[in-house]
Amino acid sequence: MGKTADSRSPGARPDPVRSFNRWKKKHSHKQSQKKQLRKQLKKPEWQVEREVISHLMQNYEKINVNEIARFSDFPLSKKTLKGLQEAQYRLVTEIQKQTIGLALQGKDVLGAAKTGSGKTLAFLVPVLEALYRLQWTSTDGLGVLIISPTRELAYQTFEVLRKVGKNHDFSAGLIIGGKDLKHEAERINNINILVCTPGRLLQHMDETICFHATNLQMLVLDEADRILDMGFADTMNAIIENLPKKRQTLLFSATQTKSVKDLARLSLKNPEYVWVHEKAKYSTPATLEQNYIVCELQQKISVLYSFLRSHLKKKSIVFFSSCKEVQYLYRVFCRLRPGVSILALHGRQQQMRRMEVYNEFVRKRAAVLFATDIAARGLDFPAVNWVLQFDCPEDANTYIHRAGRTARYKEDGEALLILLPSEEKGMVQQLLQKKVPVKEIKINPEKLIDVQKKLESFLAQDQDLKERAQRCFVSYIRSVYLMKDKEIFDVSKLPIPEYALSLGLAVAPRVRFLQKMQKQPTRELVVSQDNKVIGPRAPSLTNDEVEEFRAYFSEKMSILQKGGKRSEGTEYRLANSISAEEEEKEDEEEMEEKLGKAKWSQTQSVPSTDESQKNEKVSMHFLDRDDEEEDGLDADFFKVKRHNVFGLDLKENKTLQKKEPSKSSVKKKVTKVAEAKKVMKRNFKVNKKITFTDEGELVQQWPQMQKSVSKDTEEEDDTGGINLDKAKERLQEEDKFDKEEYRKKIKAKHRSLHPGWFLRRLPKSAFLEEKRLKEREARREANKRQAKAKDEEEAFLDWSDDDDDGFDPSTLPDPDKYRSSEESDSEDMENKISDTKKMQGMRKRNSGEVEDMRPTSSNRKKAKWETLEPLDTGLSLAEDEELVLHLLKNQS
Ligand SMILES: Nc1ncnc2c1ncn2[C@@H]1O[C@H](COP(=O)(O)OP(=O)(O)OP(=O)(O)O)[C@@H](O)[C@H]1O
Which of 775, 488, 453, 503 is nearest to 614 (CA)? Predict the structure, then answer.
């Protein structure tokens, strides 16, 4: 048998020929590698990259969705793949699988998939690849725009982008308002990928010199249906005007729009519709368990409290319909000390605070977040166990987004919806139509803890809290009043006095629009076909009216994204007499309360009723409990729920029975007129303030002297206190007199001006002023319409004991002029932008008229500078206007 080389004996010498051949092969391979490397090195880096890119692009056409399981199965750049791997993203989700390929091929995509299914990466990966393909550099400017409806969502998307795109060389920026505009403006021109909210973006488009989007390659709308809805309509139209038509557009949402009208605005080119779960049995994640309970409005707070007490180790989000509800209930619940830390997130908070709360809730393992719908979409808080919808969502889509904050990406979660009896039928029907599987469950009455007494005692001690309760009350009622779907939301069915009591208020605050509505039905009795009067028609607005209001409010919400503080907040402050300092105080207090909460076991500030003491003991007891006991409580709740032994209806629960307002607690309201009469009877003399002019003339500053009529006509009518008719007449006379005086003053000013000045400036100034006046007129019209929608503010004004014969909106400061010294820069900006926006809205309507003056896109800014050339007349704005009106009249 012959021996092989390997089986040679250890002492045998290797075959030199074979060894040489082996060495030669190795050597030549090494040489060729070196040669190739040298060749490569000679090429500039960009050229090597270009070759790689062209290789990748050739593979785009070959993408086969069915063969894709991992990100590395897509022809992606090494930099993107590395970023994905480092962030632990390897396998693709269904929406990523189906849309990334299409987007890489340059198609417009409308992607829809359930909440928590990974839509963010489905658009971020193509974003990175689009700029990589074009070898984009910072000098190329803005390449991709990602628009999100809320600041928090934009921030979250930006963070994912940073994580996944960290190996690329592009610059990315986050523009969401609430920060220094100047600082943003300095950097915005160097940003390649901009993540932003619509309002703030438009503000930069309008106000930041040199900012343009002419090179834009891709536009992404996250939560597209929300961004395209009426609330953002004007802003989005104005933004789209400034974008190049030739671009790729990606739209993503869990509830996608197919409205042709909406999509036409974006000028999509043969878009690909990818509805991943269109054929799925349910439109919500399979891992999400969804239930609803029905309870009376006045019981909801106790239900929430009881829920929190039995879920102390869980992470939950509770959704409310208004900021003021969140503000009040957050404070109250902090004082109630349920034993789990509570956070609040809403649009009236300062941006810093919002960010703090967001991050804190991300970090916490067990906590409760009280939030408005700003947290409803897109936010990816880790490991949320429960979503509780304290107030009924406006529609099924909002429900889906809210509930989708739990059970994200393969995790479990539970959602509980609290419905009023009047909301049950309509809402459940809507949910089932949208393929949302909700089941009714009952509450275990033994687990319910009535907190109304405690709330009453809090309010009795704290005037500020009481005012918050009143605002919360009005705000909730207004939110129901403004809801579009009148089948579900019927304000006339709300148990108003009982609701007030449940908030801890002895008397329900007056709500102006409700009073109006209550008067209305008597005139609007519904007559049946056989001419029988059936009853008063449910007071409601027409759909158009509601839509208008809603658009107004959501638009305001969108404008919030622009600046540090909301313009809406400013208006609220006007109406509610809350100053900016107070707002800040609120935030500080929020912090204090939280700190206080940590120390609560030592500091017992809560009083003193038997009931509250009892509850206090319970809380103390709870805090002393060990983990086991907490779990026990948790389990108790689950046991009840899972075994469906909520045998009794809430109504049967004695502790939560309807409370009739006690007679002693209902005080007779003292009107201002009555008070004034009382004062007059006492014959008080008001102090006088008298000053002297330079000429030594005596002037009575206070009380103001009547200037319009001679003293002898001012006969006092002692008989019946104040004669309102006479007072009214007198005021009208005064008014006339003042106007006349003012006119005279203006004329005198005109005469004193240099006549040559007019001749030089007249044509241009007259033209500009005419235009400005027209715009102001339109704005006033718009303001009037908006004023209608501010019933809450009006209602709040009603709480002062003003005589309510009729509130005159003209007594409110002009929102265009209003500027409190405490307002931040960003607030100023917001106000400006809201004006700009309104102007844009008008421009849209009168486009033919204004287009010549204000061309769009590139020369838009130039035109703006021209038109805004300052014209110093030395007069005030009002005088300026009067002057120009006068000139125009003379001209015509
Ligand atoms: N391929 C993936 N592999 C692992 N985890 C992923 C993947 N894609 C997404 N995720 C994770 O899934 C979670 C949800 O993703 P994302 O926020 O993108 O969902 P979404 O569809 O945008 O939800 P929503 O509709 O609520 O906005 C995130 O925590 C994300 O990190």
Answer: 453
184 and 56 both lie in a single domain: yes
pTM over 0.90: no
| Longest CA–CA separation in the chain, Å | 147
Q: Decide: 204 and 184 in contact? Cβ < 8 Å.
A: yes
DSSP assignment, residue 145? E
Complex prediction ipTM: 0.99
Interval 240-284: pLDDT, tens: 999 999 999 999 999 977 676 677 788 888 899 999 988 899 999
Residues 353 and 232 in one domain: no
At position 741, the amino acid (one-letter code) is E
Is ligand 1 within 6 A of the CB of residue 99? no
Q: What is the DSSP string of 33-46?
A: HHHHHHHHHHS-HH
3-state secondary structure of 605: coil
Atom number in ligand 1 closest to CA 95: 21
Look at residue 269 and tell me if it is in a domain.
Answer: yes
Residue that has been written with the tokens 């974006």 in this structure: 266
Q: Per the structure, how many domains does the chain have? A: 2
Q: Residue 88, by phi and psi: left (phi above 0), alpha (psi -120 to 50) or beta?
A: left
Same domain, 61 and 148: yes
pLDDT attached to residue 776: 65
Low-confidence ranges of the chain (pLDDT < 70): 1-11, 258, 260-261, 518-673, 676-677, 679-723, 749-773, 775-777, 779-780, 783-877, 880, 890-892
Q: How far apart are CA 851 and CA 234, in angstroms?
A: 17
Task: Mark whether 262 and 339 lie in a shared domain.
Answer: no
Task: Write out the DSSP string of 816-849.
Answer: TT---TT--HHHHHHHHHHHHHHHHHHHHHTHHH
CA dist., res. 341 & res. 149, Å (int): 28
Of 469, 503, 537, the one marking the end of a domain is 503
Q: Specify which residues 370 forms β-bridges with.
A: 318, 344
What the block records as the tokens of 646 is 């909520």
- Report the candidate in 99, 61, 92 with the shortest Cα–Cα distance to residue 274: 99
Is the minimum distance from the CB of 119 to ligand 1 under 6 angstroms?
Answer: yes
Secondary structure of residue 109 in the 3-state scheme: strand
Q: Which two structure tokens, joined as six digits, stand for 341? A: 């830390």
Q: Please give the Cα distance from 634 to 618 (Å, whole number).
A: 16
| pLDDT for the residue 668 | 52
CB 380 near ligand 1, within 6 Å = yes
- Residue whose CA lies nearest to ligand 1 atom number 2: 89
Does 609 reside within a domain?
no
Query: For position 186, what pLDDT does the model report?
Result: 87
Ligand 1 binding pocket includes 254 (Cβ within 6 Å): yes
**How far does the centroid of ligand 1 lie from the alpha carbon of residue 96, in Å?**
10
User: Same structural domain for residues 85 and 122?
Assistant: yes
**Whether residue 650 has its Cβ less than 6 Å from ligand 1:** no
Q: Among the atoms of ligand 1, which is closest to the Cα of residue 117?
A: 21
Are 429 and 392 within 8 A, CB to CB? no
Closest-lying ligand 1 atom to the alpha carbon of residue 89:
3
| SS3 category, 770 | helix
Residue 397 sits in the same domain as residue 477: yes
Judge contact between 388 and 403, C-beta under 8 A. no
> How many whole angstroms from 90 Cα to the centroid of ligand 1?
13
What domain range includes position 383? 288-503
Q: Verify whether ligand 1 is closer than 6 Å to residue 89 (CB atom).
A: yes
pLDDT at 65: 93
Residue 463 sits in a domain whose CATH number is: 3.40.50.300
Q: Pick from 503, 528, 548: which residue ends a domain? A: 503
Please indicate whether residue 378, judged by its CB atom, sits closer than 6 Å to ligand 1.
yes
Q: Please tell me the distance from the alpha carbon of residue 513 to that of residue 493, in angstroms, as a whole number.
A: 15
The string of pLDDT tens digits covering residues 137-187 is 988 999 999 999 999 999 999 999 999 999 999 999 999 987 788 888 988
Give CA–CA dist 35/868, Å, rounded.
65
The 10 Å Cβ neighbour count of residue 700 is: 11
